[in-house]
Amino acid sequence: MSSPRDVPLDGPRDAVEAVTHPDPFPFYRRLREERPLFFDTHLGLWVASSHAAVSEALVHPALRVRPPAEPVPRALQGRATGEVFAQLVRMTDGAFHAAHKPEVEQAVRRWTLADVACAAKDAARDLRPRLPANAFIAALPVQTMARLLAAPAGERESTCRWVAQFTQGIAAGADAQALERADAAAAALMDQGRALGLSEVQAANRIAFMQQALDAGSGLLGHVALQLAQDPQQAAAADASPDTMRALVREVERWAAPIQNTRRFAAEALKLLGQPIAAGQALLLVLASANRDEAFNTQPDRLDVHREGGRTMGFGAGPHACPGAVIAIEMVAACASWMRAAGQFDHYFERCTGFRPLPNARIPVFGQ
Ligand code: HEM
Asked: Model confidence over 10-37: pLDDT tens digits?
Protein backbone atom coordinates (compact mmCIF):
# COMPACT_ATOMS: atom_id res chain seq x y z
CA MET A 1 0.00 0.00 0.00
CA SER A 2 1.13 3.54 -0.65
CA SER A 3 2.58 5.82 2.00
CA PRO A 4 0.91 9.20 2.69
CA ARG A 5 3.95 10.94 1.26
CA ASP A 6 3.41 9.28 -2.15
CA VAL A 7 0.27 11.36 -2.64
CA PRO A 8 0.60 14.78 -1.01
CA LEU A 9 -2.38 15.91 1.01
CA ASP A 10 -3.24 19.44 2.06
CA GLY A 11 -3.11 20.33 5.71
CA PRO A 12 -1.20 18.36 8.30
CA ARG A 13 1.63 16.04 7.29
CA ASP A 14 0.22 13.05 9.10
CA ALA A 15 -2.43 11.87 11.52
CA VAL A 16 -0.36 12.77 14.59
CA GLU A 17 0.34 16.30 13.41
CA ALA A 18 -3.39 16.54 12.66
CA VAL A 19 -4.23 16.44 16.38
CA THR A 20 -3.00 20.01 16.86
CA HIS A 21 -3.71 21.33 13.34
CA PRO A 22 -6.17 24.28 13.18
CA ASP A 23 -8.56 22.19 11.05
CA PRO A 24 -7.66 18.51 10.64
CA PHE A 25 -11.07 17.43 9.34
CA PRO A 26 -10.57 17.94 5.58
CA PHE A 27 -7.38 15.85 5.95
CA TYR A 28 -9.27 13.12 7.79
CA ARG A 29 -11.94 13.15 5.07
CA ARG A 30 -9.31 12.59 2.38
CA LEU A 31 -7.76 9.79 4.37
CA ARG A 32 -11.16 8.10 4.70
CA GLU A 33 -11.92 8.52 1.01
CA GLU A 34 -8.50 7.63 -0.39
CA ARG A 35 -6.87 5.25 2.10
CA PRO A 36 -9.04 4.41 5.10
CA LEU A 37 -6.38 1.96 6.31
CA PHE A 38 -2.78 2.39 5.21
CA PHE A 39 0.76 2.00 6.55
CA ASP A 40 2.35 5.40 7.20
CA THR A 41 6.05 4.74 6.69
CA HIS A 42 7.04 8.01 8.37
CA LEU A 43 5.06 7.32 11.54
CA GLY A 44 5.89 3.61 11.33
CA LEU A 45 2.32 2.55 11.98
CA TRP A 46 -0.97 1.75 10.32
CA VAL A 47 -3.47 4.58 10.27
CA ALA A 48 -7.18 3.65 10.41
CA SER A 49 -9.55 6.54 9.69
CA SER A 50 -12.88 5.14 8.45
CA HIS A 51 -15.57 4.08 10.88
CA ALA A 52 -15.38 0.55 9.47
CA ALA A 53 -11.63 0.26 10.08
CA VAL A 54 -11.66 1.89 13.52
CA SER A 55 -14.64 -0.06 14.83
CA GLU A 56 -13.28 -3.39 13.54
CA ALA A 57 -9.91 -2.65 15.18
CA LEU A 58 -11.42 -1.74 18.56
CA VAL A 59 -13.03 -5.17 18.91
CA HIS A 60 -10.34 -7.28 17.22
CA PRO A 61 -9.05 -9.86 19.75
CA ALA A 62 -5.50 -9.78 18.32
CA LEU A 63 -5.19 -6.00 18.72
CA ARG A 64 -3.96 -5.06 22.18
CA VAL A 65 -3.55 -1.83 24.11
CA ARG A 66 0.13 -2.55 24.75
CA PRO A 67 2.88 -4.17 22.67
CA PRO A 68 2.69 -7.84 23.83
CA ALA A 69 6.47 -7.95 24.36
CA GLU A 70 6.36 -4.94 26.68
CA PRO A 71 3.16 -4.88 28.76
CA VAL A 72 4.77 -2.30 31.03
CA PRO A 73 7.07 0.25 29.33
CA ARG A 74 10.73 -0.73 29.95
CA ALA A 75 11.49 2.60 31.66
CA LEU A 76 8.76 1.94 34.27
CA GLN A 77 9.64 -1.64 35.09
CA GLY A 78 10.71 -2.24 38.70
CA ARG A 79 9.39 1.16 39.80
CA ALA A 80 6.34 2.26 41.81
CA THR A 81 4.91 3.85 38.65
CA GLY A 82 5.28 0.57 36.76
CA GLU A 83 3.50 -1.36 39.51
CA VAL A 84 0.48 0.92 39.18
CA PHE A 85 0.64 0.86 35.37
CA ALA A 86 0.56 -2.97 35.34
CA GLN A 87 -2.78 -2.96 37.18
CA LEU A 88 -4.65 -0.40 35.06
CA VAL A 89 -7.60 -1.70 33.04
CA ARG A 90 -6.67 0.91 30.41
CA MET A 91 -3.28 -0.74 29.93
CA THR A 92 -4.15 -4.44 30.12
CA ASP A 93 -6.01 -7.00 28.01
CA GLY A 94 -7.19 -10.58 28.36
CA ALA A 95 -7.99 -12.24 31.66
CA PHE A 96 -6.74 -9.41 33.91
CA HIS A 97 -8.77 -6.79 32.04
CA ALA A 98 -11.88 -8.99 31.90
CA ALA A 99 -11.63 -9.66 35.64
CA HIS A 100 -11.27 -6.04 36.71
CA LYS A 101 -13.17 -3.92 34.15
CA PRO A 102 -16.58 -4.77 35.68
CA GLU A 103 -15.37 -3.53 39.06
CA VAL A 104 -14.18 -0.28 37.49
CA GLU A 105 -17.54 0.18 35.75
CA GLN A 106 -19.35 -0.53 39.00
CA ALA A 107 -17.23 2.00 40.85
CA VAL A 108 -18.36 4.65 38.35
CA ARG A 109 -22.05 3.71 38.67
CA ARG A 110 -22.14 4.53 42.39
CA TRP A 111 -22.24 8.28 41.56
CA THR A 112 -25.52 9.88 40.53
CA LEU A 113 -25.56 12.72 38.01
CA ALA A 114 -26.38 15.00 40.96
CA ASP A 115 -23.20 13.83 42.76
CA VAL A 116 -21.13 14.61 39.67
CA ALA A 117 -22.76 18.00 39.09
CA CYS A 118 -22.27 18.95 42.74
CA ALA A 119 -18.57 17.98 42.66
CA ALA A 120 -18.00 19.84 39.37
CA LYS A 121 -19.69 23.03 40.61
CA ASP A 122 -17.83 22.91 43.89
CA ALA A 123 -14.53 22.53 42.04
CA ALA A 124 -15.43 25.36 39.63
CA ARG A 125 -16.40 27.66 42.51
CA ASP A 126 -13.04 27.01 44.15
CA LEU A 127 -10.84 27.24 41.04
CA ARG A 128 -12.43 29.97 38.91
CA PRO A 129 -11.45 32.97 41.08
CA ARG A 130 -7.80 31.95 41.33
CA LEU A 131 -6.82 30.42 37.98
CA PRO A 132 -6.46 31.70 34.43
CA ALA A 133 -8.49 29.82 31.78
CA ASN A 134 -5.84 27.29 30.69
CA ALA A 135 -4.97 26.32 34.27
CA PHE A 136 -8.69 26.15 35.07
CA ILE A 137 -9.55 23.64 32.34
CA ALA A 138 -6.46 21.61 33.31
CA ALA A 139 -7.46 21.45 36.99
CA LEU A 140 -11.25 21.15 36.90
CA PRO A 141 -11.59 17.47 35.83
CA VAL A 142 -9.10 16.09 38.37
CA GLN A 143 -10.45 18.33 41.13
CA THR A 144 -13.95 17.03 40.34
CA MET A 145 -12.81 13.41 40.38
CA ALA A 146 -10.78 13.97 43.58
CA ARG A 147 -14.00 15.12 45.29
CA LEU A 148 -15.95 12.10 44.00
CA LEU A 149 -13.11 9.77 45.00
CA ALA A 150 -13.02 11.14 48.55
CA ALA A 151 -9.50 12.59 48.47
CA PRO A 152 -9.08 14.44 51.80
CA ALA A 153 -10.05 18.10 51.32
CA GLY A 154 -6.63 19.23 52.54
CA GLU A 155 -4.94 17.03 49.92
CA ARG A 156 -6.86 18.13 46.82
CA GLU A 157 -4.13 20.40 45.52
CA SER A 158 -1.45 17.75 46.08
CA THR A 159 -3.72 15.12 44.55
CA CYS A 160 -3.99 17.19 41.39
CA ARG A 161 -0.23 17.63 41.31
CA TRP A 162 0.41 13.92 41.91
CA VAL A 163 -1.97 12.93 39.10
CA ALA A 164 -0.18 15.31 36.73
CA GLN A 165 3.20 13.92 37.80
CA PHE A 166 2.04 10.32 37.41
CA THR A 167 0.67 11.16 33.93
CA GLN A 168 3.93 12.83 32.90
CA GLY A 169 5.91 9.82 34.21
CA ILE A 170 4.03 7.27 32.10
CA ALA A 171 4.30 9.38 28.93
CA ALA A 172 6.83 8.07 26.40
CA GLY A 173 10.24 9.70 26.76
CA ALA A 174 9.85 10.84 30.39
CA ASP A 175 13.28 11.76 31.80
CA ALA A 176 14.83 10.51 35.06
CA GLN A 177 13.48 13.42 37.10
CA ALA A 178 9.95 12.97 35.75
CA LEU A 179 10.14 9.25 36.59
CA GLU A 180 11.22 9.96 40.15
CA ARG A 181 8.41 12.46 40.62
CA ALA A 182 5.96 9.93 39.15
CA ASP A 183 7.14 7.24 41.61
CA ALA A 184 6.60 9.53 44.59
CA ALA A 185 3.21 10.57 43.21
CA ALA A 186 2.17 6.94 42.59
CA ALA A 187 3.14 6.04 46.17
CA ALA A 188 1.16 8.97 47.63
CA LEU A 189 -1.92 8.22 45.53
CA MET A 190 -1.78 4.50 46.36
CA ASP A 191 -1.61 5.44 50.07
CA GLN A 192 -4.79 7.50 49.62
CA GLY A 193 -6.56 4.50 48.10
CA ARG A 194 -5.34 2.11 50.82
CA ALA A 195 -6.51 4.55 53.50
CA LEU A 196 -9.99 4.25 51.94
CA GLY A 197 -9.80 0.46 52.36
CA LEU A 198 -9.26 -0.30 48.65
CA SER A 199 -7.32 -3.32 47.33
CA GLU A 200 -4.13 -2.71 45.32
CA VAL A 201 -5.96 -3.07 41.99
CA GLN A 202 -8.79 -0.82 43.14
CA ALA A 203 -6.33 1.81 44.40
CA ALA A 204 -4.42 1.72 41.09
CA ASN A 205 -7.60 2.14 39.04
CA ARG A 206 -8.74 4.91 41.37
CA ILE A 207 -5.64 6.78 40.16
CA ALA A 208 -6.67 5.99 36.58
CA PHE A 209 -10.07 7.67 37.11
CA MET A 210 -8.21 10.90 37.72
CA GLN A 211 -5.46 10.33 35.16
CA GLN A 212 -7.96 9.47 32.40
CA ALA A 213 -10.06 12.51 33.32
CA LEU A 214 -7.06 14.85 33.18
CA ASP A 215 -6.42 15.48 29.48
CA ALA A 216 -9.67 14.08 28.08
CA GLY A 217 -11.76 16.13 30.50
CA SER A 218 -9.71 19.30 29.91
CA GLY A 219 -10.14 18.84 26.17
CA LEU A 220 -13.89 18.37 26.42
CA LEU A 221 -14.31 21.35 28.73
CA GLY A 222 -12.11 23.49 26.49
CA HIS A 223 -14.05 22.65 23.31
CA VAL A 224 -17.41 23.23 24.99
CA ALA A 225 -16.21 26.58 26.38
CA LEU A 226 -15.02 27.56 22.92
CA GLN A 227 -18.33 26.65 21.33
CA LEU A 228 -20.35 28.53 23.95
CA ALA A 229 -18.13 31.60 23.58
CA GLN A 230 -18.42 31.55 19.77
CA ASP A 231 -22.17 31.05 19.49
CA PRO A 232 -24.16 33.27 21.92
CA GLN A 233 -27.51 32.07 20.56
CA GLN A 234 -26.65 28.44 21.15
CA ALA A 235 -25.23 29.38 24.56
CA ALA A 236 -28.50 31.09 25.54
CA ALA A 237 -30.45 27.94 24.61
CA ALA A 238 -28.06 25.81 26.69
CA ASP A 239 -28.38 28.21 29.63
CA ALA A 240 -32.13 27.71 29.58
CA SER A 241 -32.11 23.94 30.04
CA PRO A 242 -29.70 21.41 31.59
CA ASP A 243 -30.76 18.87 28.95
CA THR A 244 -29.82 21.24 26.14
CA MET A 245 -26.46 21.89 27.80
CA ARG A 246 -25.87 18.11 28.03
CA ALA A 247 -26.89 17.68 24.39
CA LEU A 248 -24.44 20.42 23.42
CA VAL A 249 -21.60 18.73 25.36
CA ARG A 250 -22.40 15.37 23.71
CA GLU A 251 -22.47 16.88 20.23
CA VAL A 252 -19.30 18.92 20.75
CA GLU A 253 -17.57 15.72 21.91
CA ARG A 254 -18.63 13.91 18.71
CA TRP A 255 -17.79 16.82 16.46
CA ALA A 256 -14.49 18.04 17.97
CA ALA A 257 -13.31 14.71 19.48
CA PRO A 258 -10.99 15.85 22.32
CA ILE A 259 -9.34 12.41 22.18
CA GLN A 260 -8.52 12.29 18.49
CA ASN A 261 -6.84 8.91 18.36
CA THR A 262 -5.84 5.82 20.28
CA ARG A 263 -3.33 3.06 19.57
CA ARG A 264 -3.35 -0.70 19.25
CA PHE A 265 -0.62 -3.35 18.76
CA ALA A 266 -0.91 -6.60 16.80
CA ALA A 267 -0.26 -9.57 19.09
CA GLU A 268 -0.28 -11.87 16.03
CA ALA A 269 -0.70 -11.61 12.28
CA LEU A 270 -4.25 -10.58 11.42
CA LYS A 271 -6.45 -9.08 8.73
CA LEU A 272 -8.32 -5.80 9.15
CA LEU A 273 -10.81 -4.90 6.39
CA GLY A 274 -9.09 -7.75 4.53
CA GLN A 275 -5.69 -6.02 4.80
CA PRO A 276 -2.92 -8.20 6.28
CA ILE A 277 -1.21 -6.70 9.35
CA ALA A 278 1.96 -8.31 10.67
CA ALA A 279 2.50 -9.37 14.28
CA GLY A 280 4.15 -6.57 16.26
CA GLN A 281 2.89 -3.72 14.07
CA ALA A 282 1.18 -0.72 15.65
CA LEU A 283 -2.02 1.02 14.59
CA LEU A 284 -3.28 4.54 15.09
CA LEU A 285 -7.09 4.55 15.26
CA VAL A 286 -8.37 8.00 14.39
CA LEU A 287 -11.54 8.26 16.47
CA ALA A 288 -12.07 11.88 15.42
CA SER A 289 -12.21 10.82 11.78
CA ALA A 290 -14.56 7.89 12.44
CA ASN A 291 -17.03 10.35 14.03
CA ARG A 292 -17.10 12.35 10.78
CA ASP A 293 -17.67 9.29 8.58
CA GLU A 294 -20.96 9.50 6.66
CA ALA A 295 -21.35 5.78 7.18
CA PHE A 296 -21.53 6.49 10.93
CA ASN A 297 -23.35 9.83 11.25
CA THR A 298 -25.56 11.76 8.83
CA GLN A 299 -24.21 15.18 7.85
CA PRO A 300 -21.27 14.49 10.14
CA ASP A 301 -19.53 17.84 9.64
CA ARG A 302 -22.53 19.77 10.96
CA LEU A 303 -22.50 20.63 14.64
CA ASP A 304 -26.15 19.94 15.39
CA VAL A 305 -27.26 19.97 19.02
CA HIS A 306 -30.67 18.62 17.99
CA ARG A 307 -29.17 15.75 16.00
CA GLU A 308 -31.14 12.55 16.44
CA GLY A 309 -29.25 9.31 16.81
CA GLY A 310 -25.81 10.95 16.84
CA ARG A 311 -23.08 8.40 17.52
CA THR A 312 -19.51 8.77 18.75
CA MET A 313 -16.33 6.74 18.83
CA GLY A 314 -14.76 9.52 20.91
CA PHE A 315 -15.10 7.50 24.11
CA GLY A 316 -13.72 4.39 22.42
CA ALA A 317 -15.73 1.19 21.88
CA GLY A 318 -15.49 -2.51 22.59
CA PRO A 319 -13.74 -3.96 25.64
CA HIS A 320 -11.84 -0.73 26.39
CA ALA A 321 -14.78 1.64 25.98
CA CYS A 322 -14.58 4.57 28.40
CA PRO A 323 -16.53 3.87 31.57
CA GLY A 324 -16.41 7.59 32.45
CA ALA A 325 -18.34 8.97 29.47
CA VAL A 326 -21.52 9.85 31.38
CA ILE A 327 -19.52 11.42 34.19
CA ALA A 328 -17.39 13.42 31.79
CA ILE A 329 -20.45 14.86 30.03
CA GLU A 330 -22.20 15.75 33.28
CA MET A 331 -19.04 17.26 34.77
CA VAL A 332 -18.52 19.56 31.80
CA ALA A 333 -22.20 20.46 31.46
CA ALA A 334 -22.50 21.29 35.17
CA CYS A 335 -19.30 23.30 35.18
CA ALA A 336 -20.30 25.32 32.10
CA SER A 337 -23.82 25.94 33.43
CA TRP A 338 -22.53 27.09 36.80
CA MET A 339 -19.95 29.45 35.27
CA ARG A 340 -22.50 31.03 32.97
CA ALA A 341 -25.19 31.40 35.64
CA ALA A 342 -22.66 32.88 38.09
CA GLY A 343 -21.40 35.42 35.55
CA GLN A 344 -17.99 33.72 35.56
CA PHE A 345 -17.86 32.75 31.88
CA ASP A 346 -17.76 35.87 29.72
CA HIS A 347 -14.30 37.07 28.62
CA TYR A 348 -12.63 34.03 30.23
CA PHE A 349 -12.53 31.81 27.11
CA GLU A 350 -12.37 34.58 24.57
CA ARG A 351 -9.85 33.42 22.02
CA CYS A 352 -8.39 30.02 21.13
CA THR A 353 -4.75 30.47 20.12
CA GLY A 354 -3.99 26.83 19.30
CA PHE A 355 -3.84 23.42 20.89
CA ARG A 356 -1.56 21.89 23.51
CA PRO A 357 1.27 19.90 21.86
CA LEU A 358 0.00 16.39 22.63
CA PRO A 359 -0.07 13.29 20.39
CA ASN A 360 -3.67 12.24 20.95
CA ALA A 361 -5.60 14.83 23.00
CA ARG A 362 -6.78 18.02 21.28
CA ILE A 363 -6.93 20.59 24.08
CA PRO A 364 -7.61 24.23 23.20
CA VAL A 365 -5.21 26.88 24.50
CA PHE A 366 -6.87 30.18 25.36
CA GLY A 367 -5.15 33.56 25.02
CA GLN A 368 -6.01 37.11 25.97
C1 HEM B 1 -14.56 11.73 34.22
C2 HEM B 1 -13.75 11.56 33.29
C3 HEM B 1 -13.25 10.24 32.74
C4 HEM B 1 -12.96 9.07 33.38
C5 HEM B 1 -13.08 8.77 34.86
C6 HEM B 1 -12.50 8.13 32.37
C7 HEM B 1 -12.06 6.85 32.60
C8 HEM B 1 -11.61 5.98 31.64
C9 HEM B 1 -11.05 4.66 31.90
C10 HEM B 1 -10.85 4.03 33.28
C11 HEM B 1 -10.75 4.10 30.71
C12 HEM B 1 -10.10 2.73 30.47
C13 HEM B 1 -11.14 1.69 30.15
C14 HEM B 1 -10.52 0.38 29.69
O15 HEM B 1 -9.42 0.39 29.15
O16 HEM B 1 -11.17 -0.67 29.83
C17 HEM B 1 -11.11 5.06 29.67
C18 HEM B 1 -10.97 4.84 28.34
C19 HEM B 1 -11.22 5.80 27.40
N20 HEM B 1 -11.66 7.09 27.62
FE21 HEM B 1 -12.23 7.88 29.37
N22 HEM B 1 -12.54 8.76 31.15
C23 HEM B 1 -13.00 10.04 31.35
C24 HEM B 1 -13.20 11.02 30.42
C25 HEM B 1 -13.03 10.81 29.09
C26 HEM B 1 -13.29 11.82 28.09
C27 HEM B 1 -13.76 13.24 28.34
C28 HEM B 1 -12.98 11.24 26.88
C29 HEM B 1 -13.05 11.83 25.51
C30 HEM B 1 -13.83 12.78 25.15
C31 HEM B 1 -12.54 9.89 27.13
C32 HEM B 1 -12.15 9.01 26.17
C33 HEM B 1 -11.75 7.71 26.41
C34 HEM B 1 -11.35 6.79 25.36
C35 HEM B 1 -11.27 7.09 23.86
C36 HEM B 1 -11.04 5.59 25.97
C37 HEM B 1 -10.64 4.28 25.29
C38 HEM B 1 -9.18 4.22 25.02
C39 HEM B 1 -8.87 3.00 24.19
O40 HEM B 1 -9.71 2.09 24.00
O41 HEM B 1 -7.74 2.94 23.70
N42 HEM B 1 -12.59 9.67 28.48
N43 HEM B 1 -11.63 6.20 30.27
From this structure: 689 999 999 999 999 999 999 999 999 9
Residue 208 C-alpha to ligand 1 middle, in angstroms?
A: 9
Q: What is the CATH number of the domain that holds 223?
A: 1.10.630.10
**Could you give the dihedral angle defined by the CA atoms of residues 127, 132, 133 and 139, in that order, rounded to the nearest 10 degrees?**
-40
* Ligand 1 centroid from CA 328, angstroms: 9
Angle between helices 156-170 and 133-148 (to 10 degrees): 100
Which residue stretches of the chain have pLDDT < 50?
Answer: 1-8
Residue 4 lies in a domain: no
Ligand 1 atom 17 nearest Cα: 322
CA distance 135 to 365: 10
Contacts of 298 by beta carbon, 8 Å cutoff, 6+ apart = none
Domain for residue 8, yes or no? Answer: no
Say what the pLDDT of residue 10 is: 60
pLDDT at position 350: 82
Q: How far is CA 138 from the centre of its chain?
A: 13
* Nearest in space to 92 (alpha carbons), one of 319, 314, 281: 319
Instruction: From 12, 1, 57, select the one nearest 265 (Cα to Cα).
Output: 57
Distance CA 273, CA 63 (A): 14
Domain boundaries, position 75: 17-367
- pLDDT (tens digit per residue) in 129-139: 999 999 999 99
Mutate which of 59, 322, 332 for ligand 1 pocket (most atoms within 8 A of beta carbon): 322
The verdict on residue 1 lying in a domain is no
Residue 123 located in a structural domain:
yes
pLDDT at position 307, please? 95
Q: Using the atom order of ligand 1, give the atom closest to the CA of residue 319.
A: 16
Query: In total, how many domains does the chain have?
Result: 1
**CA–CA gap between residue 320 and residue 318 (Å, rounded):** 6
Distance separating alpha carbons of residues 303 and 255, to the nearest angstrom: 6
